[in-house]
Amino acid sequence: MSTREKSGNKGQPSRRDFMRTSGAAIATAAAAGYGARKAYAGKNEVLKIGLIGCGNRGSGAAHQALLADPDTVLFAMGDTFADQIESSLQKFGQLREQGRIKVDDGHKFVGFDAYKHVIDTCDVIVHATTPQFRPLHVRAVIEAGKHLFVEKPIAVDPTGVRHVMESCRMAKEKNVNVVSGLCYRYQFSKQATMKRIHDGEIGDIIAMETKYNTGPLWYKDRKPDWSEMEYQIRNWLYYCWLSGDHINEQHIHSLDKIAWAMGDAYPHSATASGGRIQRIDPKYGNIYDHFNTTFVWSNGVKGFSSCRQWDGSSTDVSDHIFGTKGTAHLQKALIEKRDGSKWHYHETGPDDMYQNEHNAFFKAIRTGNTINNGDYMCKSTLMAIMARMSAYTGQTITWDQALNSKLNLTPDKIEWGDMPVAPVPRPGITKFV
């Protein structure tokens, strides 16, 4: 019997299962001695890293985790598909030669329940699955008392956001680390620029503009032996129930930055538009290819946001914070004052935001300190979902409406086989839930 047959086809979780962690999994961890393991790790204690979600981002995050701490090994890997694990393993060439990759066949877990086995056998979890599954998996990691790096976004709907909010509160009680994949927060140049904004160098913020205008992303051709469920999960970007649309999956970085500029105050409301201009083939599921949003804060500040994934079109990833004394250009780490003076970040040395976040993560684990990025990673996800809801419905959506929405995109069953495709949302017809 194949690994996939053992793990992937039987006992698939229901919607209720997907919004709570299996008690059996936690009991197994405790019985094995893992659930009770202390959160603090001694200086030279070897930490076992487990990777859940073995695509490109997961592989990169695991690589950075290993580079952040020499006394770590990649010990277990879990993914919905076995080929993803094998492909990922090929990307660790030098680290494999150094003996840092300890993933034997018994620690390659495949299927919808693969995450449980990775959590059971490892000390630190690097999580980069399809966003749909993050609320369930985050809860399982925290209940097991393991340290967690989790990619963005953390959910695809408000139900999932609230679930992760509660998980992050639990993490504080357990003193385990939760580090977010919203990596700009860990880039030194961004930190220095934000400090100057918060210290009043550009004066009071008047308005903000952010763009994430890029080209199209990857697509995987359908294979004859794939069920509809497998096809959708392998092309998860294009299905809202899996990705939350690209405003949530990609543009969240931009939205997180302008919320950060506002001192982690989040907007009161969002009025958005969007649609599909290039992405009209049914193979692109039911997501949009562009969004334009006006966010309004309670103090009257407006943030203007645009994102698109168009082929053959100009690209622009930038953020501009306009103040009474000047303008901050976040991507350039540049401040231009109205008096003609300028400041530009020019420190030497590496400033790899992806590596920085893992360096901070493992430093906290080793020193007994705790990082919990739960508040902003949840709220920035909700900010993206609020804008998506507005574009899909054609209505202005308030923060409270979004936060309290009962929308739950998780299907009744997650299992191999048929999976209906929800219609492309139509403003004025699609209703707010």
What does this 3D model show about the protein?
The structure is a single chain. The chain is α/β, with parallel strands linked by helices and 433 residues long. It folds into 2 domains: 198 residues, NAD(P)-binding Rossmann-like Domain (Rossmann fold, 3-Layer(aba) Sandwich), CATH 3.40.50.720; 184 residues, Dihydrodipicolinate Reductase, domain 2 (2-Layer Sandwich), CATH 3.30.360.10. It is built from 17 helices and 15 strands. The strands form 2 sheets. Strands 14-13-12-11-7-10-9-8-15 form a 9-stranded mixed beta sheet. It has a 6-stranded parallel beta sheet with strand order 3-2-1-4-5-6, sandwiched between helices. Helix 14 crosses helix 16. The longest helix is centred in the last third of the chain and has 20 residues. The protein starts with a helix and ends in a 29-residue tail after the last helix.
